[in-house]
Amino acid sequence: MSNNNMPGGSIICAGLSCLDLQLKGCTQSGSDEAIKRYDEAIHCAGGSASMTATTLALLMKEQQNEQVHVITKIGPDFAGNTLLEFYRKAGASTRLVLLDEAARTSMAVLPIFQNGKRACFVNLACNDGFTTDEMLQQVDQYFAKDSDSSPQPQAFLFGYPHLMPKMQGSALKSMLRSVREKLSTNDSTVLIAVDLNGVDGSDPIKAKTALIPALSEIDVLHLNEDEAMVLSSSTTSSAAVNNDDASNIMSPELLSQISSFHENGCAVVLLSLGSKGAFVSVTPDSKRLQQFSSSVRMAMSQWDAGTQVHIPAFKIDHGDVNTNGAGDALFAGFSLAASSWGTAMEDRLCGNGEWKICPSAAGSFASLVAWQRCDAKTRDGDGMRSAQTLLEMIRDQKLPATLSSSSIN
pTM for the complete prediction? Predict the structure, then answer.
């Protein structure tokens, strides 16, 4: 357990990584065997660890006392070296990255279609053999070097367990519990957040077994509608909801599935709804939220049990859209706002306590982060608003236009 109480803080982004080759402007006409065209081929850092770390590092470049660290596994090859370059360029620390001389770095090919959607072809390579022991070994390294200057970790973001066979089920639960113990102090609990991808709907039982046992260790769970349908362990046909906003945007089946995640111990569920935005659900179990009672600095510790709110998606005015990494950005932004970073920003922006980062504000912040990430003109940092500026937009209610119902498929 750490006893470091330095001012500032850090976010650790861990899990799957791959070097993406994006084919921008792909056509979709013709049969599967027809020749398709693309406008441009570019490399970028892909996977949960890469996407969350680069997004947050770009957002917080102005905050010199905040650090973003990457924990992932790479090999000594072109893909691995290129990933390290992307991390450093964004401003993320690479000292916790595990370099395995015998491993091969994962690579993916992503056609980005002209409508902004994408496909994905991937060789997971060293992600397949990344073990919980290796992950915890890297977590231990956080305070092992220059510990006097290492700020207190505020959140540990992990993804994607369904694509990492050594980090599933009871092994995932044990790993997340150990991470919390290693990175928390007596008066500050690190937030544990998990992002899903690669959930196989053809084998729901296997998909559930990979996640459900670990839900009690997860403070924030991010997934989409399809993944929620596969993973629900609820036997209830519907959930009682007293929120008109929720009932208008969410089906009874989805609400019931979210309830099942809370029943299994997850504190907060962040559900991606694509162009419809996102849905935030806080557990109705006040005892689960009381686990953060010693963490007076964590924004989520002040949230009301049972809160549910729909968050709209924001509109990009021009047509240059790239949705690759939108879910990762949403997840990263929400986890950052829900952590002790959020409370510190409350004090900075409104010291009299009149404005708080509630679930709605955290969700809006996440949606703004995704909005900037989907905008091809700002996604790599040029013209990107800082994290503090985004919160000021929410506080001052100066938000961009939302996607209208006519834009929702």
Answer: 0.91
